[in-house]
Design a protein that fits this description.
- It is built from 17 helices and 6 strands.
- It is mostly helical and 486 residues long.
- The protein has a two-stranded antiparallel sheet. A two-stranded antiparallel ribbon has the order 2-3. Strands 5-6 form a two-stranded antiparallel ribbon.
- Strand 2 and strand 3 form a beta hairpin.
- Helix 3 runs parallel beside helix 17 and helix 4 packs across helix 7.
- The longest helix has 36 residues.
- It is globular, with a radius of gyration of 25 Å.
């Protein structure tokens, strides 16, 4: 056998061995991955991956112009500069919006989502949505300068709740239907949601026929309705103050909002909550409560009985002595505390008119004494009793939320944590500059630490989708720029 033959044989043997090793490694990797998946049930208590008490230096921020300041219960709140990294988050949201204006249910890291060159998946099992471009609305143009064709597009796994949340995040960042770099994104989302509401029967408890989304499974089956109602209130607030808004758009928004409010009120449970399904339905009930408050503030008829029952339900979740009911909060105090604190803002603001002092000044006083103080100032018996309870619940929740252990929520970041942070941001803005500044600094540092390289944020349990998480983070940091008051 020649030297040449020996070399060829050695090479062949080496190649064969390498192939066997590669196959073994691949099989071992696949086996490990499958085992890991089976061993990790949904929302299993994780190891702590993010700590709110170990934060980096505050991120650099960019000042974004704001025409007005927000009104807090202790005076005017000057908007904080928006951290530079938020720009990447907004750009990521815009990039992942579908042509019909919606956002898909499962885009982002850790999700299997096959896309074509338009950024969305087409499958055999899809739901059809027709883009409403017959009306002369600005929906954006491609680089060719041609408007998208008026054809039926097929989309699967749409997420109305995340769509409404993302569109609201754009609005808090300064975009409207006619102003801002992302005005076309807001417009397209509005068209999609109005069409979805229009096609939904009035006796339904949710909008659309999209099912199985993470927000629905984790928060509740009518979360799309609550989130869309919140978004429509912002749009209505801006449109009513903009003389350039066309009459048809204003009518469409108002009609859709009134329908959503009626659906929300009709679907409320006897105890003041909304759907009991979902992993942490207290958050769904909180979104519904806040949506009705916003709508009422914009002149939409809302039943006082429904709203009081809703606020009472949230208030009851935090007792005067600080005990927290968590059976509807997946056992996580953070969810119940922020839901209760946010829902008690309105009643606490009413109480301050009688107390002539911020509610925090009464944190060491029991509810009965607070009630007597308000009665002396002219409050009716039932009103004084309700407001005093709201004040105690608000102060108890505020005190508990000072704990970094409580703020860690389930143990690491999920969409539920980000949504809870968003509600606390709104409560802090309503309270005044000092609590808002302190909270904003804490959140700005935290979010700068955990942002994904592509500009988005994602969850590590339960609600993990980047669209929902990114929108909630932006909403948390821009509560002082909301078009409506809290």
């Amino acid at each position: 056998m020649t030297r040449k033959h020996l070399l060829i044989g050695a090479f062949a043997l080496s190649f064969f061995a390498t192939g066997i090793a590669a196959i073994a490694i691949k099989n071992n990797h696949n086996q490990r991955t499958i085992t890991d998946i089976k061993a990790s049930p949904v929302c299993e208590k994780p190891a702590q991956t993010t700590s709110v008490d170990e934060l980096p230096d505050p991120p650099k921020a960019t000042t974004v112009s704001q025409k007005t300041v927000k009104k807090g219960t202790r005076g005017l709140v000057t908007p904080r500069a928006i951290p530079n990294y938020v720009d990447k988050g907004l750009a990521w949201l815009a990039k992942n919006q579908l042509p019909n204006g919606a956002w898909p249910a499962h885009p982002g890291m850790g999700n299997s989502y096959d896309t074509d060159d338009t950024g969305y998946r087409q499958t055999d099992d899809v739901k059809t949505v027709e883009t409403d471009v017959a009306r002369k609305v600005e929906t954006g143009e491609k680089k060719t300068g041609k408007r998208q064709s008026n054809t039926k597009q097929q989309y699967s796994n749409l997420d109305p709740a995340s769509t409404a949340l993302a569109a609201t995040a754009f609005m808090r960042a300064g975009n409207t239907l006619t102003e801002g770099p992302y005005r076309h994104n807001v417009r397209k989302a509005l068209d999609f949601l109005i069409l979805t509401v229009r096609e939904t029967p009035l006796n339904s408890s949710n909008i659309g026929n999209h099912s199985g989304t993470q927000p629905q499974n984790k928060l509740g089956q009518n979360i799309d309705l609550a989130m869309t109602t919140q978004f429509l209130t912002r749009v209505l607030a801006v449109c009513q103050n903009n003389s350039q808004t066309d009459a048809q758009t204003l009518k469409d928004v108002r009609d859709a909002l009134e329908k959503c409010v009626a659906m929300l009120q009709n679907s409320q449970q006897k105890d003041g909550s909304w759907t009991g399904t979902g992993w942490a339905p207290v958050l769904n009930s909180a979104m519904a409560n806040n949506a009705l408050e916003y709508a009422q503030a914009q002149g939409i008829t809302v039943s006082d009985e429904v709203l009081v029952r809703s606020q009472q339900y949230q208030s009851d979740n935090v007792s005067e002595d600080g005990a927290v009911r968590t059976e509807s909060a997946a056992g996580v105090e953070l969810y119940a505390l922020t839901s209760s604190k946010r829902a008690n803002v309105q009643e606490s603001k009413k109480a301050e008119k009688y107390l002539d002092a911020p509610v925090s000044a009464y944190k060491d006083m029991d509810a009965a004494t607070i009630e007597k103080e308000m009665k002396k100032k002219g409050a009716k018996d039932d009103d004084a009793r309700r407001m005093s309870k709201a004040v105690k619940s608000y102060n108890s929740a505020s005190e508990s939320l000072q704990s970094d252990v409580v703020l860690q929520g389930f143990g690491n970041n999920g969409g539920e944590e980000f949504l809870s942070y968003m509600m606390n941001s709104e409560a802090c803005v309503a309270e005044g500059q000092q609590p808002w500044d302190k909270w904003h600094d804490k959140m700005a540092s935290l979010f700068g630490k955990i942002q994904n390289p592509d500009g988005s944020w994602s969850g590590h349990h339960c609600i993990t989708t980047n669209v929902f998480c990114t929108a909630a983070v932006i909403m948390t940091l821009t509560a002082d720029r909301d078009p409506i008051a809290f």
